[in-house]
Amino acid sequence: MPIATVNPANGETLKTYEAMGEEEVERRIRLAEATFRTYRTTTFAERARLLVRAAELLEEDQADIGAVMTTEMGKPVKQARAEAAKCAKSMRWYAEHAEGLLADEEPAEHDVKDSGGSRALVRYRPLGPVLAVMPWNFPLWQVIRFAAPALMAGNVGLLKHASNVPQTALYLEDLFHRAGFPEGCFQTLLIGSGAVDEILRDERVRAATLTGSEPAGRAVASTAGEMIKKTVLELGGSDPYIVMPSADIDRAAKIAVTARVQNNGQSCIAAKRFIVHTDVYDAFAERFVAGMKALTVGDPMDEGTDVGPLSSEQGRSDLEELVDDAKRSGAAVLCGGERPDREGWWYPPTVLAGIDREMRIHREEAFGPVATLYRADSLEDAVLIANDTPFGLSSNVWTRDDAEVDRFVRDLEAGGIFFNGMTASHPAFPFGGVKRSGYGRELSGHGIREFCNITTVWHGA
């Protein structure tokens, strides 16, 4: 795939870039290793000062970088600006909290004495250069949620971003440079996916994090396993959105629309499978379909647009194949379901019902504004449908029944369970999944410790 900015609204190639050669990649890895030796000794106060400055610059650049993101991957510009603001907020959060999250831990005194020691502590130390392989759908946020904690922990970053968001990738390197971080703390590698394996095998690269597809995760995990390197993987999701009879149906249906089409439906944590108790199925379906039909699909640079184009022609083709397969297998199309005749990579908000286990869309992630509706006869049935997926990223449940809350928390197979609202990420809460959605966690104290050497320090009596 060429490294290029291609406007998904019309398919026009706006800017292309040459991939970095081996010599330039080697220079950058060497610089990262050299920078780490000194950056690791900086204080939390110094790192926080730099990260806050980066947040200030990002806030100043919010409108401009928002327009760049929209041009490169098609999200509505108001959502792009919100993404930039969220990144700045998270950078400030880590600047404030990192020192406390990584403070030395002292084991219980009786355990220290039992070990034969006089004192002991656990210290979190940085690992070194970390390779981040990041996707296009949240081109700022996916990177910042890695970079902010990694830099605050004393690591340095090497970014291999998606090939269709090169301007955003270069902006990120420039942002940290302008903020005053030492040269080599955060570098963008303009390379294709084929170059990742060799970089991951380099002994100077100590760990890797990847957000992306299941095949990409398998490739990185395989090489990292061979090289015995730590990885964090955040892969696909096919999140359930469960509605029980005690729910506020009007609100559940309204939020469901946003939960499905946020970021043009191209979000791992977007609700995708809507599992509704039979007692309220008809009422929910009527409201949900009406809400999906009412969305404004159009120019992503227009402030009134709800849904823009998909990010690529291939992405649209993949989504269209899932819908067409479901239709051939008997699914009912409640709205949408047909590609519009216009330039660019558009697909309408779509709702499918009558889904069965043999349809591809039941097993595979639909990455676009396509929702599937399921009827559940009971709580147990809802849980079975929700867990009948290879993924386990997040989940949404609408109920006012405390006993049902306890059952869903016990039985749903997901890294997050959000009640009476839609899934969202926040720097204070761990983020990640189970099953084929990956392993490890980003954000919160769990995320910042993923790329730390957890060191036992023991003193004899």
TrEMBL record:
<keyword id="KW-0521">NADP</keyword>
<dbReference type="InterPro" id="IPR016162">
    <property type="entry name" value="Ald_DH_N"/>
</dbReference>
<dbReference type="InterPro" id="IPR016163">
    <property type="entry name" value="Ald_DH_C"/>
</dbReference>
<keyword id="KW-0560">Oxidoreductase</keyword>
<dbReference type="InterPro" id="IPR047110">
    <property type="entry name" value="GABD/Sad-like"/>
</dbReference>
<dbReference type="GO" id="GO:0102810">
    <property type="term" value="F:glutarate-semialdehyde dehydrogenase (NADP+) activity"/>
</dbReference>
<feature type="domain" description="Aldehyde dehydrogenase">
    <location>
        <begin position="3"/>
        <end position="457"/>
    </location>
</feature>
<protein>
    <submittedName>
        <fullName>Succinate-semialdehyde dehydrogenase/glutarate-semialdehyde dehydrogenase</fullName>
        <ecNumber>1.2.1.16</ecNumber>
        <ecNumber>1.2.1.20</ecNumber>
        <ecNumber>1.2.1.79</ecNumber>
    </submittedName>
</protein>
<dbReference type="InterPro" id="IPR016161">
    <property type="entry name" value="Ald_DH/histidinol_DH"/>
</dbReference>
<dbReference type="GO" id="GO:0036243">
    <property type="term" value="F:succinate-semialdehyde dehydrogenase (NADP+) activity"/>
</dbReference>
<dbReference type="InterPro" id="IPR015590">
    <property type="entry name" value="Aldehyde_DH_dom"/>
</dbReference>
<dbReference type="InterPro" id="IPR044148">
    <property type="entry name" value="ALDH_GabD1-like"/>
</dbReference>
<dbReference type="Pfam" id="PF00171">
    <property type="entry name" value="Aldedh"/>
</dbReference>
<comment type="similarity">
    <text>Belongs to the aldehyde dehydrogenase family.</text>
</comment>
<dbReference type="InterPro" id="IPR016160">
    <property type="entry name" value="Ald_DH_CS_CYS"/>
</dbReference>
